[in-house]
Amino acid sequence: MNNTSRKIILVLLAIGVTAGILKIMGAGKEEKEVGEVKQTFKSVRVQKAELGTHKADVEFSGKLSAIEKIDLFTEVGGVLLTEGFKTGNKFSKGTPIAQLNSTEFAISLKASKTQLITQVSAVMGDMKIDFPDELAAWEAFLNGIDVDASLPKLPAVTNNKLKRFVAGKGILNSYYSLKSQEEKLSKFTINAPFNGVLTNATIKKGTLVRGGQKIGEFINPSAFEVEAAISISDLQFIAVGSEVELKSDDLNKTWVGRVARINSSLNANSQMVTVFVNIAGSGLKEGMFLHGSAKGASFENSVLVNRKLIKNGGLYLVEDGVIKHQKVEVLYTNQSTAIIQGLKAGQSYVSDNMKGLYDGMKVSVAK
C-alpha cells in the first residue's frame, strides 16, 4: 500500500471516529435536557367554606350632634352684664345665661304702671254709681298693681256697656300696652331652656349688642345623635329601634345607640337614605366622628366571604387541582364582606391570587 492510499484511509477513519463521538455527545445532551423539563401551575391560596348563621351588618358613619341645641339670639339691644358668659360654662335649666342692661327700660315701665294706677283710680267713682256689681273686682285689680311686679289679671268684662266705658277711658289700651312692655323686659334676660353648656360665645361682658344678633350656642351634652347615610338596599335590614354599635378610632372606645328616625325621602343625587341614631355616654363630644354597624336580618346556612372574591356572580373553587367557577346567591353585601349561599361546607374557594383564573385551569394550592 502506497503512502497516498494510507493517508486516505487515515482521513476516513478520523472522520468516522469524530462523527461517532459527536453523535454520542448529542444523544446524551438531548437525554439530559428532556430529563430536566418540569410542568408548573399557577399557585393560589384557598379557604374552606364554613356554613353558619350570619347577620347583615349595616354600616354607619357620621358626626355627633347634640339633640338639644339652640343658637342664642338677642331679641332686644343692650350691654351684656353677665360675667360668666364664656365658652365651656355650664348652666342649669331656668338660670340666666345672658343678662342685658335693662335699667332704663324697667324705669320707663314703672312710670307707665303708675299712669295706669292713675287712670283706674279716676274712674272708680263713676264705676261705683254706674256699675256697682263690678266695683269690688276693679278695686281688687287696682290694689294689686305693683310697679315692681307683673300686672295682675284684668277683671273679666262681660258687660258691653262697661267694656265701652273702660275702653273709652284708655284703660284697656294702657293695660295691654304694659303687658307688651313686660314681655319685652323679660327678653333682656336669656334663661337656659335645659341643663347644658355654652359651646360658643361671640361676645363678652360689657359688649353692646343689637336686637337679633347671634351671641352664642348652647347644647345639652348628655344626649347626641349621629346623622348617617345608608344605601336604599340596606334600608330593608334595619328599622326604628335597631341597635347600632358605634366606635371612635381616636378614643378606641365603643358606644351603643338606637335608630331613632329614618327619613322617608331619598337623596336624589346620592341615592342614599338619611338615618338618625340616638346615643349617649361618657366621652362623647359635639362634632366627634363615629363609625360602626347595626345587626340586621339573619341568614342561616350561609357563608361570609370577602366581597372582592365574587367574580361574574360566583366564586372560583379548586377541585382536584382544577379551577371551577361556581355561581352563588349574594344575600347581602357591605363595603368589605358579602353573605352568600350556594356553597357546601368544606368546599375550597380561591381567596388570593385570582388574576387570570378561568374555568378548567390547572392550579396548585399554596401551603
Characterization of this structure:
With 367 residues, the protein is an alpha+beta fold. The chain is 26% helix and 37% strand. The protein is built from 5 helices and 21 strands. The protein has a 6-stranded antiparallel barrel. Strand 12 and strand 13 form a beta hairpin. Helix 2 packs antiparallel against helix 3 and helix 2 runs antiparallel to helix 5. The protein is rod-shaped, with a radius of gyration of 46 Å. About 2% of the residues have low confidence.
How much of the sequence lies in strands comes to 35-45%
Q: What order do the helices and strands follow? A: HEEEEEEHHHHEEEEEEEEEEEEEEE
User: How are the strands of the largest sheet arranged?
Assistant: 2-11-14-13-12-15
Tell how many strands the DSSP assignment holds. 21
